[in-house]
UniProtKB/TrEMBL annotation:
Keyword DNA-binding among record annotations: yes
UniProt name for this protein: Integrase/recombinase XerC
Record-linked PANTHER family: INTEGRASE_RECOMBINASE (PTHR30349:SF89), PHAGE INTEGRASE-RELATED (PTHR30349)
GO terms (BP aspect): DNA integration; DNA recombination
Family designation: Belongs to the 'phage' integrase family.
Chain ranges of the Tyr recombinase domain: 112-291
A molecular-function term among this protein's GO annotations: DNA binding
Keywords assigned by UniProt, alphabetized: DNA integration, DNA recombination, DNA-binding
Function, in words: Site-specific tyrosine recombinase, which acts by catalyzing the cutting and rejoining of the recombining DNA molecules.
The organism of origin for this protein: Geosporobacter subterraneus DSM 17957
Core-binding (CB) domain: residues covered: 2-90
Amino acid sequence: MDTKEYYLDDFVDYLNKNDKSSGTISTYTTNINDFIKYYTESYGEKFIPGNVIMMDLQDYRNYLLNIKRQKASTINNKIAALKEYFYFLQSNGIIKNNPAENLKKIRTNKPTAPKGFSDSDFRKIKRYVYRSQKNLWIVVFELLSKTGVRVSELINIRLADITINERSGNLRVIGKNQKERNIPLHLDVRKAITAYMEVRDKMSISSDYLFISERKRPFTRSGIFKILKRWENDTNIKIHPHMFRHHFAIQILNTPKSDINTVQYLLGHESIESSAIYLKVRQEDLEKSINALTDY
């Protein structure tokens, strides 16, 4: 596949200039390539962006939904990538009409909050991490579970972003779209950071990043994912970094005097709608309610 032909290199430059994260750029390019592959195999012709019509995109959406049986959220992510791609092509005069302009996403009506950890699974993971006695693991666990930071935010924490006093602490986070938020640090987080710093200081590190690998380089996303994969394999519990984020949000909502605005701020959500999903009940809570029914 000649990416120059499809302006993918220029598209990546456009995404970079619009401050998209490396993860978003990678996902978008993968989704565009998936559509190009579908187009050439389905229609038996060379992919030319200007030849694509809305019907092609609608057929692709139906193919993903009815043949591939993909989740609505997955399909909507692919649609978002296609919308961005064809908008880029039109705005740069590469195509005259944008076939994705009025393409609708799949409507979802989920009754449940995002998948998080059950209380027992969370305790099992925590016990496993603490039993390892690895300061790095413990501080990663505590920051993910008690600040709700994203992995991209976690690996970009600088020493100057952390303030720890005798009875309080604060973490300055630069999130999506360079939006800043300040998260109070729980006692467990403060203890974990302090213990980790004692080990880190002995490594003679000049970098101002909090997380440094054994090679004395800043941690990458893949480095954090490798740690989480190890936890997953050893505990036999499905672990994804966003599950810690969901667990954190639910715990915050379960505390007195906390509301959806608190969750929005702490998670760094742009809109209140993104946070509102945590007001919905979890699937396991629905099951508990049903199972608790007596004969009536």
